[in-house]
Amino acid sequence: MRLAFKGDLNAAQLEPSNSAFQYLKVTVHGRPAFLVLGYVEPHDATEVWYSAKGEVIKLQAGRLTGALGLETEWRQVSFTGAPEWSELVQSRQQRLWQYQRVRDVMPGYVSSLTDRLTLTQLPYSQVQKRLGHLVQHLAGKSELRWFEEAGAKDLPAAVYAVDALTASSKVVFTYHCVSLQLCMALEPWAPARPALPDVSQRHIQPQGQTTR
After folding, report:
1. What CATH number labels 2-189?
2. What percent of the residues of the chain are helix, what percent strand, and what percent coil, each to the nearest 5?
3. CB burial readout 29-61, b (16+ within 10 A) else e
4. How many CB atoms neighbour CB 190 within 10 A?
5. Residue 182 phi/psi, 5° resolution?
6. Does position 48 have pLDDT exceeding 70, yes or no?
7. Domain limits of the chain?
8. pTM
9. Above 60 in pLDDT, residue 208?
């Protein structure tokens, strides 16, 4: 991910092509990097993603539960009372959901920093106004529900896009800041499928005819 910080490679050079792996696209300061899924914790379904440089991002249902090897690290993160995304998507009322997050932060080892968070649903227009080109490719996707998570005194609010059509209401985009200087847009990414060969122009030789 340090490539994303330094901006010394363009997007086309960074894009991986091996479809055998699952990737997480991480955009920092306008530059993308791609992390590979290492494993999923069996007890709580936490996804553990690795960069080529050894940085680690941990996500649980789209929520950031760990960031290691970055300029600012979140060593231990836990949530209390966080609602399920399926519950939020099915709710017909505009309301606030409140819960708590506790995190250990480096450098300086700030232990048990407690955030009392509030989650609200937002229209895409408000998200686009704030995040601009980071969410431009998601415009017009009516199946997405957008949420803002605020309450951390030292950080900008996080943003989530949830696909309401998936059985588990999957998070397909998140925007997280681990410090005022380091914010990341995170989303699953799949390599482009190779183009199939164009056989429409191939010459079909009649049976029985030989080529001289």
Report:
1. 2.40.360.10
2. 15, 40, 45
3. eebbbbbeeeeeeeeeebbbbbbeeebbbbbbb
4. 10
5. -130, 100
6. yes
7. 2-189
8. 0.84
9. no
67 exposure class (CB count in 10 Å sphere: 0-12, 13-18, 19+):
buried
Task: Report yes or no: 127 and 146 within 8 Å, Cβ to Cβ.
Answer: yes
Tokens for 39, please give them: 């494993």
Measure the CA–CA gap between 22 and 50, rounded to whole angstroms: 11
| Contact residues for 126 (Cβ-Cβ < 8 A; gap 6+) | 146
CA torsion through residues 44, 49, 53, 55, sign: negative
How distant is the alpha carbon of residue 67 from its chain centre? 13
Whether a cis peptide bond, with omega within 30° of 0, leads into 107 is yes
Give the C-alpha separation, 133 to 155, whole Å.
21
Which amino acid, 113? L
Which stretches does DSSP call E strand in the chain?
A: 23-28, 31-40, 47-50, 56-60, 63-68, 73-80, 97-106, 110-122, 144-150, 158-163, 171-177, 183-189
Query: Which amino acid type is present at position 114?
Result: T
Locate 11 and state its tokens.
Answer: 């997007």
Percent of the chain with pLDDT over 90: 67
Q: How far is the C-alpha of 128 from the C-alpha of 192, rounded, in Å?
A: 25
